[in-house]
Amino acid sequence: MPASLTALALVCSLKPSPAASSSELMARQVLDELATHGVTGSVVRVVDHDVRPGVELDMGDGDAWPGIRAQVMAADILLVATPTWLGQHSSVCQRVLERLDAELSETDDAGRPRTFGKVGIAAVVGNEDGAHHISAVLFQALSDVGFTIPAQGVTYWNGEAMHGTDYQDLDQVPEATAATTRTVAGNAAHLARLLAGENYPASS
């Protein structure tokens, strides 16, 4: 019987709830596909929480990151979903990456970063080019702090340049994006199960 798995989507929209968010829509579509592989998912819209700037586990004074981090550490798969602004990931997404930097100093009894054995994937939306650049940034950062990236681990949609249509405004999801989302989910679940069965070796 395959091990049960969990996923957490950190949605890095600049819009607080309850505003509609293309990033959250795509994140939930990824989670829906993960559910077909037996993965239970949840969503955190980061901007709804008082995540303080910094690179420590807890920046104190009501910092909301420790609670979010607890959810990250409890999940087998982390999905980072971000909009594209000026060809870059959002400032909220950058703050998430900066806070994850603290994981470099957190190790388990085998000397491995506590993020070893966890899978990292991405979702990017926007009305301009930038998805490949953003996924490269996200993959490097997630790998640096210990997450493992599956083959074709990003799904994305970029609208026509200088056009006003959002992903959430589309009548239906383009098949290319839908197929990529299915691939991301399937590969992430497969890799997460492999790592759950046998983690990386102990640090020397």
What tags apply to this protein structure?
35% helix; 204 residues; oxidoreductase activity; alpha/beta; Flavoprotein-like_sf; Rossmann fold; 5 helices; single chain; Flavodoxin; 6-stranded mixed sheet; FMN_Rdtase-like_dom
- By CATH reckoning, the class would read Alpha Beta
The CATH topology name reads: Rossmann fold
The number of E-state strands comes to: 6
Please describe the biggest sheet, giving its number of strands, its sense, and whether it closes into a barrel.
6 strands, mixed
Q: From the alpha-carbon coordinates, what is the Rg to the nearest angstrom?
A: 16 Å
Unreliably modeled segments: none
Mean pLDDT: 95
**CATH-defined superfamily:** Flavodoxin domain
End-to-end gap: 33 Å
Give the amount of beta strand, in percent.
15-25%
The arrangement of helices and strands along the chain is EHEHEEHEHEH
**Into how many domains do the coordinates divide?**
1
The structural class is alpha/beta
Specify the CATH architecture: 3-Layer(aba) Sandwich
Q: Helix share of residues?
A: 25-40%
User: Helical stretch count?
Assistant: 5
What global shape is seen? Answer: globular
GO molecular function: oxidoreductase activity
InterPro entries: Flavoprotein-like_sf, FMN_Rdtase-like_dom
Organism: Tersicoccus phoenicis
Pfam families: FMN_red (PF03358)
Give a verbal description of the structure.
There is one protein chain. This protein has 204 residues and is of the alpha/beta class. It has one domain (5-197): Rossmann fold (3-Layer(aba) Sandwich), CATH 3.40.50. Strands 1, 2, 3, 4, 5 and 6 form a 6-stranded mixed beta sheet that branches. It is globular, with a radius of gyration of 16 Å. It is built from 5 helices and 6 strands, in the order E-H-E-H-E-E-H-E-H-E-H. It has helices at residues 22-35, 65-74, 91-100, 131-144, 175-197; strands at 5-11, 39-45, 77-85, 88-89, 119-126, 154-158. Helix 1 (22-35) links the parallel strand 1 (5-11) and strand 2. This is Flavodoxin.
